[in-house]
Specification:
Strand content: under 5%
Number of strands: 0
Distance between the termini: 56 Å
Number of domains: 1
Order of helices and strands: HHHHHHHHHHH
Helix content: 55-70%
Largest sheet: none
CATH topology: Heme Oxygenase, Chain A
Structural class: mainly alpha
CATH architecture: Up-down Bundle
Mean pLDDT: 93
Radius of gyration: 18 Å
Number of helices: 11
């Protein structure tokens, strides 16, 4: 069994994140982010990306709820997960005082998409309200893979999107609040996920399983953060 004593967690994380970038599997490697930063997309294409991304992620916080429901007997961990979920659902810890997906609707409003219309957008993702069980030996592997695939790179993604959308397309800061809060909050979660990787290392084959899980999950996450490429199609000009 790999233990914290013989696992250089920091080096493992750095190597894995570097591997993701080398493979162009990170959500930071999506074409939409590059196109926004190059100012080579239209506002209609940004609109289509925003619609698709909102529809795909509006129930994403259920993943945090599922981790909480499956968590081991660790009150500190449960408080960390609960705080993350509470913030996503209410925004009260950050001070935005709204569900984060309601905050994203401020960007949709820039395209005259109402909250009711936003809720009616078909999601490309399956909705699974019942959650799913996570075996105890897999818990920290699954949680760490989520952190390395989603939360850690999303901080940089949001900072870059906020800057590019404001500079190149003139979006107001109120319309970009979702990006601003995630650039800050997801960066803050970095130390938590480094700790979780250390715990994953204690499971049999934990680091090897974590690497495989992260590589697979990153590919899916990249598609979501790239809006499934729908911003390229004819719907973007509709």
């Amino acid at each position: 069994m790999t233990t914290l004593a013989d696992a250089d967690v920091g080096s493992f994380i750095d190597d894995l994140l570097r591997e993701l970038r080398d493979r162009r599997s990170s959500l930071l490697d999506g074409d939409f982010l590059a196109a926004v930063e190059a100012a080579s997309v239209t506002r209609d294409q940004i609109r289509e990306w925003a619609r698709t991304f909102y529809a795909a992620t509006r129930n994403g916080r259920l993943l945090l709820g599922n981790f909480y429901a499956n968590s081991p007997d660790d009150p500190v961990l449960r408080r960390e997960l609960a705080a993350n979920l509470y913030e996503e659902e209410t925004g009260r810890l950050s001070g935005v005082n709204r569900c984060h997906m309601e905050v994203f609707q401020d960007l949709l409003a820039a395209f005259d998409i109402t909250p009711a219309e936003a809720e009616g957008i078909d999601s490309p993702m399956d909705y699974r309200p019942q959650g799913s069980p996570i075996a105890p030996e897999d818990f920290y592997v699954e949680l760490s893979a989520y952190g390395l695939s989603v939360e850690l790179p999303n901080a940089e993604f949001c900072a870059r999107m906020q800057r590019a959308l404001a500079q190149h397309f003139g979006f107001a800061q109120k319309q970009l609040t979702w990006f601003a809060i995630h650039a800050a909050l997801d960066a803050d979660h970095g130390e938590e996920f480094r700790k979780y990787v250390g715990r994953a290392a204690r499971s049999p084959g934990g680091l090897a399983r974590l690497r495989a899980k992260t590589l697979a999950l990153a590919e899916v996450t990249k598609q979501i953060w790239d809006g499934f490429g729908r911003w390229r199609g004819p719907a973007a000009s509709a």
